[in-house]
Structure formats: structure tokens, C-alpha cells
Amino acid sequence: MKKVICFLFIFVFFSGKAQTASDLLGKVVAKLNTVKDYSATASITADIPMIKILPSKATVYFKQKDKFKVVSKGIVILPKQGFTDVNSFISNPKNYQSLIGDTSVVNSTRTVLATIIPNGDGNEIILAKLWIDYNRFVVMKSQITTKTNGTVTTTYTYGDKVSFGLPSKMVFEIDVKKFKMPKSVAADINNREPKAKKDTRKKGTITVTLSDYSINQGLNDSLFKK
């Protein structure tokens, strides 16, 4: 009996790796493509060295394939990489080459690593690593290196919208020196008193909790015009 259980465990453990990276990415994209558009409430907190930003709320809007808008009364620091850029990029396999990697556990979920290398040098994304839950076909963790924002690592938590591939929580880890801040935030940094205690951390985090999703409501393109 123990041998049978052991065999089944080994089979399940390696079944994710039996698939190619393109297979896995195709299934992730297929799930994301069930969402034609959505809106959601985002609660945002930031812990970034030398910057004091109060928690804020915003409404985020998305429409296939790459329309994205954030509406808020306050200052919002929100990396696009975790919301739309990667999803849009992987939706076209002609944009990149992909390789399957090792399995690992992310947030108590067994994942397999897919490494994505863009074709040519005309892309904003230089390198992407996605840790994919190969049972539910959602991304549990991403590490995206771009030309302008350095490397952003994101971990994802899913709730009742997992069937659409939409997370309930995202935690971004950013490279403070390379990440582009809103102009108002950059001005605040420059106006800091030199005597203030210096925070030497090189990384910062942005936590986004998403709720009140409205999915496939037929958002009008005019909503995304400035």
C-alpha cells in the first residue's frame, strides 16, 4: 500500500513538469481570456523607504486586451507589470520563447516555473519568470525585469474569482532605485530634510487587496480615454 501511495505522489509531483511551458502558459492565457473586462475596488498600502504614503483606495478597470485605468482621489503607486503588462505579453506566443523549470511551493501551493525570454530587444520586458499552479492554471508568483522599472516580484493570493484567474491580493516587491514613482511622490522625496533618519533598504513593498469584482459587464472604450 505504501508503495502505491508513493508512486501516486511521484506521478502527481511530476505531472506538472510533463507539460511544456507553452502548454502551461496557453492554459493560463485561456483562463484569463474568459475575462473580457472587469472593475474592482483596490485597497493599497505601501512600505517604501524614505516615503510616507497613507493607505488609499482606488477603482481599477480593465478591458481586453490591454486597456487599464486606475481612479482614485489620493496618490496611488501601482505597478502595471502585475496587472496587465505580463498578461498581454504572454497572450501572443510569437513574442517570446519559454522554458519549463523546477517545481516549488509558493504560498502552500505546488508550482512549476516557466521562464519567458522575449524575441528581439524591442520589448519593455527583458525577462519574465512565472511560478504557475499547474492544477488551477494561475500564476502564484511572478518576477518581471523591465527596461524602465528594474525587477518587480509579485506574489498572488486567490479567492472566489480564481476560476477567472483574478487574484484577491497582490504583494509587489520593487527595486526602489529603478522603480518609477509618480511625480508628486518624487517631489516629496526631494523635499525631505537632510537630517531625517535615512532608510537604507533597497526594496519596498506595495500590497493591493482586491474586492467587489464586476466581471464581463461590457465596459465602454470611452472609459479608458484620458
Précis, in short:
With 226 residues, this protein is an alpha+beta fold. It is built from 4 helices and 10 strands, in the order ααβββαββββββαβ. Strand 6 and strand 7 form a beta hairpin.
Labels describing this entry:
single chain, 226 residues, outer membrane lipoprotein receptor (LolB), chain A, 10-stranded antiparallel beta sheet, 4 helices, 10 strands, globular, disordered N terminus
Describe this protein's structure.
There is one protein chain. With 226 residues, the chain is an alpha+beta fold. The chain has one domain: outer membrane lipoprotein receptor (LolB), chain A (Clam). The protein has helices spanning 2-18, 21-32, 81-90, 183-190, and strands at 37-47, 56-63, 67-71, 96-106, 109-118, 125-133, 138-146, 150-158, 167-175, 203-215. The chain has a 10-stranded antiparallel beta sheet with strand order 3-2-1-10-9-8-7-6-5-4, with helices on one face.
Question: Layout of SSEs?
Answer:
Blueprint: H1 2-18, H2 21-32, E1 37-47, E2 56-63, E3 67-71, H3 81-90, E4 96-106, E5 109-118, E6 125-133, E7 138-146, E8 150-158, E9 167-175, H4 183-190, E10 203-215
Antiparallel strand pairs: 1-2, 1-10, 2-3, 4-5, 5-6, 6-7, 7-8, 8-9, 9-10
For the record, the count of structural domains works out to 1
Strand order, sheet with most strands: 3-2-1-10-9-8-7-6-5-4
Task: Flag low-confidence runs.
Answer: 1-16, 186-195
Distance between the termini: 64 Å
Question: How do the helices and strands follow one another from N- to C-terminus?
Answer: HHEEEHEEEEEEHE
Largest sheet: 10 strands, antiparallel
In CATH, what is the class? Mainly Beta
- Rg over alpha carbons: 19 Å
Please name the CATH topology.
Answer: outer membrane lipoprotein receptor (LolB), chain A
The CATH architecture assignment turns out to be: Clam
Average of pLDDT: 83
User: What is the H level of CATH, i.e. the homologous superfamily?
Assistant: Lipoprotein localisation LolA/LolB/LppX
State the helical fraction: 10-25%
Strand content: 35-45%
